[in-house]
From TrEMBL:
The keyword Transport applies. Belongs to the ATPase gamma chain family. Its main location: membrane. Pfam families: ATP-synt. It is a peripheral membrane protein. One of its GO terms (molecular function) is proton-transporting ATP synthase activity, rotational mechanism. This is F0F1 ATP synthase subunit gamma. Produces ATP from ADP in the presence of a proton gradient across the membrane. The gamma chain is believed to be important in regulating ATPase activity and the flow of protons through the CF(0) complex. It comes from the Bacteria.
Length: 270
């Protein structure tokens, strides 16, 4: 009898877990749709700002993310605020560990956005974290950050890019610096305000837009990872529940059969 009760308790526990993981999967699916919509809008704004910058010239095409970091560079790393999203946070932290020594020796400044990566800030004296997590970060946050550091700062973003449901990987992106911009030879003095001021304003907007795109990319990857992780957890809970239910039915049938045999044996004795 005690075995049946313990099996029944385990079945109820697994069913409760399955309900929780299914709800979390549905929430992640809903947030994934919102994140994708926001990402499309952010990319559209970034492309429009870049198109406006092309009035003055274009960025050098040979700029690479693998350039050696220098003094004054800024590394912005994006992680999740919560777990239960598969290997999303762990893969990002592994990538950051591989870059840590190189960036630390260069004297670069670190900005960690996301509570799961904030503990890493203790290893870097120049690191700054957003205590409210990634939920409190928006375009105006990046605008304030870029404005405070100036247009000469070189930003690098470490985030997880979602190519597809089965292809998500961490990426280190170097945002082109203002010094990488090649101006046209044609004079643009007819622009108001003066073209250098206008370029500086548009460049700051471009950097903010690119940082925001990286944030939205990270959100898409996070919700995709959580949706897949919760889907796998729900399926595992279903399998465990089925096995426990078969064991429970088998034990219950065995108990009933044993009781019937005892009743029949007693009747034969009488």
């Amino acid at each position: 009898m005690s075995d049946l009760k313990s099996l029944l308790l385990r079945i109820n526990s697994v069913n409760s877990t399955k309900k929780i993981t299914r709800v979390m999967q549905m929430i992640a699916t809903s947030k994934l749709k919102q994140a994708r919509t926001s990402l499309v809008a952010a990319r559209r704004y970034r492309d429009e700002v870049l198109r406006s910058l092309e009035i003055f010239g274009k960025f050098r095409e040979e700029v690479s993310s693998s350039d050696v970091p220098a003094q004054g560079d800024v590394l912005v790393a994006f992680s999740a605020d919560r777990g239960l999203c598969g290997g999303y946070n762990s893969s990002l932290i592994r990538h950051l560990r591989s870059l840590a020594d190189e960036f630390k020796d260069s004297g670069a400044t670190f900005y960690f956005i996301g509570k799961k990566i904030s503990f890493f800030a203790e290893q870097f004296p120049s690191a700054r974290t957003n205590t409210s997590g990634s939920e409190g970060v928006d375009f105006y946050f990046f605008n304030k950050l870029v404005t405070s550091l100036g247009s000469k700062a070189v930003f690098r973003c470490l985030y997880t890019k979602c190519e597809s449901a089965m292809n998500m990987h961490s990426v280190l992106l170097r945002i082109p610096a203002a010094s990488d911009f090649l101006f046209h030879d044609v004079c643009t003095s007819h622009l108001e305000p003066e073209h250098k001021k206008l370029f500086t304003y548009l460049y700051v907007q471009y950097v903010c837009a690119q940082l925001y795109v990286c944030l939205r990319e990270a959100k898409v990857s996070e919700n995709m990872s959580r949706m897949l992780a919760m889907d796998g957890a729900t399926k595992n809970a279903q399998e465990v529940g089925d096995k426990l239910r078969r064991r429970y039915n088998s034990a219950r049938q065995e108990k009933i059969t044993k009781e019937l045999i005892e009743v029949v044996s007693g009747a034969e004795v009488i």
